Amino acid sequence: MSSPQSASTASSGRVLKIWTPEDKFFWEREGKSVAFRNLLISAPALMLGFIVWQMWSVIAVNLPGLGFKFTGDQLFWLAAAPSLSGATLRIFYSFMIPLVGGRRWTAVSTASLLIPAIGLGFAVQDNTTSYNTMLILALLCGFGSGNFSSSMANIGYFYPKEHKGSALGLNAGIGNLGVSVVQFMTPVVVTMGMFGVGASQVLTAKNGTTSEIWQQNAAFIWVPWIALFTILSWFFMNDIASAKASVRAQVVIFSEKHNWLMCILYLGTFGSFIGYSAGFPLLIKSQFPGVNPLHYAWMGPLVGAAIRPFGGWLSDKIGGGIITFWNFLVMTLAVLAVLYFLPKGQGMYAMKGIGPEAGNFWGFFVAFLVLFVTTGIGNGSTFRMIPTIFSELKLREVANGTPEQRAGAAREGTLLGSAVVGFSAAIGAYGGFFVPRGYGISINNTHGPEAALWIFAAYYVVCAVITWWWYSRKNAEMPC
After folding, report:
1. End-to-end CA distance of the chain, in Å?
2. What is the DSSP string of 368-387?
3. For residues 387 and 412, is the Cβ–Cβ distance under 8 A?
4. Which of 149, 201, 346, 358 has the largest CB neighbor count within 10 A?
5. Which secondary-structure segment (H or E) carries 16?
């Protein structure tokens, strides 16, 4: 147990030279307050990352009405592109905390969001801006996605094992709220001339009615907040001295089976959350043209983000494997409900003769809300599983070892668990690309989104089987 003297020196300065959160005396005396302060800054900074990442999910909806001559498939590309670049960036970001430090990297990665936010704010004011320019800006919005891997890996170092599920769920849940915030706020802020930067534009609806908007506000409104949390991160967060490791020490996760299994599961949960969030407005617009998607689309990401901490907390109480298994089964049923309520139209894979022929928006919308809830619970439960799995793996290696050996194994398990959290987050983010592109490809080739949804449902069944076999059944290899 740490002495009062050692505990009191832990937080002196920006680098924590002593950090032993599993020591209950240390945790209660000092660790808890330091960890919470870092979480208090990390979570809203991560929310800004999600906001920048998902700006295109709502900006793309207005572009045709502003005179941009982009096809429907090009619009789905713009909504999907930030997730393609962001998921790739996450692979590198997942290893940055042990190399650079949590405080420094949070400040640098938050500041990087200024580039796409400012660039996009100017680009949308001119409807002659080329598609390639817009695509580059969409790819740059992936900076916001990359922040998730480093943020989650960083917060994982601050909390003891018994609180990791709740802490990671809270950090990610508040971060995920950025999707709902940007989808809710954008239709409001574009109606106001707030910043005096650029002229207003004329938005022409399909029925020919016009309105005056300031589309640049969708990006410019976040610039002051990004600057503020860059400063707060630099001056009030901490680096942990013991959370240092080379890339070589971290890449051992690539030879570990459970790393890849958890990547598959997290692609099913978070990949679905971010993919559905990115594609929901355009999906509503394509299937229910009489409905304004911006009135409703933000509610899905809201419930998915809000429920994520509950998924982590519930997994702390019951077990991540059990919650994840049942969650995937419910996700499968929710997709079937979405298929039931879609308009049957010309879709080759529609449920012909089953459900209302013209579709039912409210049934479709409620089914999608259930789907968003399950993505949130699954996000929390899978991220609760990862630290447990890798701590147990390392502790099994020294089951008969000395206390010092077990303490070393626990530290190594925390390091590897954090690396897997970051890497699985990278793989999961590709869902933000696959889902919107899946819709676009399905609609172009089969005249409806049903083929993509059937594939998603089949994937959830595979995830449920993986979870049951390795993590939740009796005598599973790694119960958690």
Report:
1. 27
2. HHHHHHHHHHHHHHHHHHHH
3. no
4. 149
5. strand 15-16
Render 264-299 in DSSP notation, one character per residue. HHHHHHHHHHHHHHHHHHHHHHHH-TTS-GGGTTTH
**What's the 3-state SS for 36-80?**
HHHHHHHHHHHHHHHHHHCHHHHHHHHCHHHCCCCCHHHHHHHHH
The closest of 132, 92, 127, 128 to 112, measured between CA atoms, is 92
Query: CA 285 to CA 442: how far, in whole Å?
Result: 15
Contact call for residues 7 and 32 (beta carbons, < 8 A): no
Q: Which residue from 108, 126, 117 is spatially nearest to 82, judged by alpha carbons?
A: 117
pLDDT of amino acid 161? 77
User: Going by C-beta distance under 8 Å and a sequence separation of 6 or more, which residues neighbour residue 427?
Assistant: 87, 263, 266, 267, 271
Task: Please give the share of the chain, as a percent, with pLDDT higher than 90.
Answer: 42
The two three-digit tokens of residue 428, written as one number: 């999961």
CB atoms within 10 A of CB 358: 10
DSSP type of residue 253: G
Q: What are phi and psi of 201, to 5 degrees?
A: -125, 165
pLDDT in tens, 18-42: 898 888 999 999 899 999 999 999 9
244's CB contacts (< 8 A; 6+ apart) are: 98, 99
Dihedrals φ, ψ of 434, to 5°? -65, -40
What is the model's pTM? 0.74
Q: What is the DSSP string of 176-218?
A: HHHHHHHHHHHHHHTTS--S--S--EEEE-TTS-EEEE-TTHH
- Torsion 346-352-356-359 (CA) sign: negative
Task: Give, in degrees to the nearest 5, the angle at Cα 126 between 121 and 129.
Answer: 95
- Rounded to whole angstroms, the Cα distance separating 154 from 151 reads 5
- Look up residue 91 and give its two tokens: 């692979």
What would you report as the CA-atom Rg of the chain, rounded to the nearest whole angstrom? 23
CA angle 446, 356, 335 (to 5 degrees): 60
Question: DSSP for 294-307?
Answer: GGTTTHHHHHHHHH
The mean pLDDT value for 186-201 works out to: 81
**Length of the chain as a residue count:** 480
